Amino acid sequence: MMSHERDADNRGEEQSPTLLVGVSRPETTAGLMELAWCLASRAGYHVIATHVVEVPPQANLGAVRGSREVVQAREKLLGAIREAAGRDVPVKGVVEIARDVGEGLISAAEKQGAELLLVGYSEMRDDEAGESGERRFDRVMHRVARSTKADLVVARFRREQVESILLPINTGLNIAVSGKLARAISLAREAPVTLLHLLAEDETEHEVRTGLEDVLEDNDMADLGELVIEEPPDDLEPLQHMLELVNRHDLAIVGADPRPSIAESLFGSWAERIAREAECTVLVVRAKSVEDKG
Q1: Closest CA relative to residue 184, chosen from 171, 167, 198
Q2: Residues contacting residue 273 through CB under 8 Å, at least 6 positions apart
Q3: CA 93 to CA 91: how far, in whole Å?
Q4: How much helix, strand and coil, in percent to the nearest 5, is found in the chain?
């Protein structure tokens, strides 16, 4: 275990919500720690970075504590801590030893009492049985989401700058977590937020606006940004229209579909396609309440 702490008084830290950041790849570390800084500085999160060292079934978990893999894990965590130190964010680093990444993240989230788990999208390799890397990553995250008490956010980074934020909204279960993320990032990066709803065929703008304004008020989001309600053009699939709107911004925060089918990804077809095809950075949010009610 390692930590970087400020000398300042941290007596209020115990009351702060805990953000657990899964650090695995150097190319996502800077982006993850930037998000951690936004949440720590603007939403009061206490930040813990963790790296999971996977141990094969035939090996003893305790026997690898001084291994080369653990040393490398500590080096990755030190890199994350240095990223945070440049922003004056106190970060604790924890190496988690487990049979697989999913088990390690679940264990770390439980031990640290994490309320929010943040990971970067991982380009996993296809396995020997032919399962795609994307499907393997989705399967791991599905297990994590169902087994922790933490809300889950998966980040896919494409742009460093954040000058505008798009938050597609409905009355779904992810709105409170998505709103908290949007507000923290907006305040930290001084970036305006646009809240967007695409009308379905059976919806009217007046009814939708009234309902969404009530939801935003209930979730302390009434002042978050401009609420835009659009009807998709007839000659364009709604998801394609959404992608065009998403690409006008630097960051999109997308809530997972509440109940994706077995054939879809953990996050549902819309969220998964936006994360995969958008030209901007995308945060996909799956609130724990989705799993509780799923």
Answers
A1: 167
A2: 239, 243
A3: 6
A4: 45, 20, 35
3-state secondary structure 204-263: CHHHHHHHHHHHHHHCCCCCCCEEEEECCCCCCCHHHHHHHHHCCCCEEEEECCCCCCCC
Three-state secondary-structure class, residue 94: strand
- Determine if the pTM surpasses 0.85: yes
Rounded to 5°, angle at Cα 270 from 264 and 271: 90
Spell out the residues 6+ positions from residue 55 whose beta carbon is closer than 8 angstroms to its own.
61, 64, 97, 98, 99
- Give the number of other Cβ atoms within 10 Å of residue 199's Cβ: 15
The DSSP secondary-structure symbol of 281 reads E
Say if residue 62 is exposed, middle or buried (CB neighbours under 10 Å; 0-12, 13-18, 19+): exposed
Q: How far apart, in whole angstroms, are the C-alpha atoms of residue 91 and residue 5?
A: 7
> pLDDT-based confidence at 139, cuts 50/70/90?
confident
Contact 22, 107 (CB under 8 A): no
Which residue's entry shows tokens 């487990």?
98
Q: Domains of the chain by range and CATH? A: 2-156 (3.40.50.620), 165-293 (3.40.50.620)
Is a pLDDT exceeding 60 seen at residue 151? yes
Is residue 109 within 8 A of residue 62, CB to CB? The reply is no
List Cβ neighbours of 100 (8 Å cut-off, separation of 6 or more): 52, 54, 140
Q: Which H or E run contains 31? A: helix 26-43
pLDDT tens for each residue of 71-128: 999 998 998 898 888 888 899 999 999 999 999 999 999 999 999 999 998 655 545 4
